[in-house]
Specification:
Length: 96
């Protein structure tokens, strides 16, 4: 997510306030906020969910809608979201 530079601290405050409730949401297994080293106005949330259904339930929740309403005006560019699945881990057979 690319934020207006002057809005970064505001977003971090929104994240800090919302994160405990998101982490407590059924199916949320992990939530982190990452900040780009070279461009500090670019931040990424990394979350792990039990399954797609849990993530979709969160995305439909009042918690998400309220958090998004506070976050959306802070963007400098259209946000992007990606969903991934684990293709390999260091514990996978054949890994070095």
């Amino acid at each position: 997510m690319t934020f207006r530079p002057e809005a970064v601290d505001t977003f971090i405050g929104v994240f800090d306030e919302s994160a405990p409730r998101i982490r407590a949401f059924p199916g949320c297994l992990h939530l982190e906020l990452w900040q780009d080293v070279s461009y500090p106005n670019i931040l990424t949330t990394l979350s792990h969910w039990k399954d797609d259904a849990a993530l979709e339930k969160y995305r439909s929740s009042q918690l998400f809608k309220a958090t998004w309403a506070r976050t959306k005006p802070l963007f400098a560019a259209r946000p992007e979201a990606f969903s991934h699945y684990l293709a390999r881990s260091h514990d996978s057979p054949g890994s070095a």
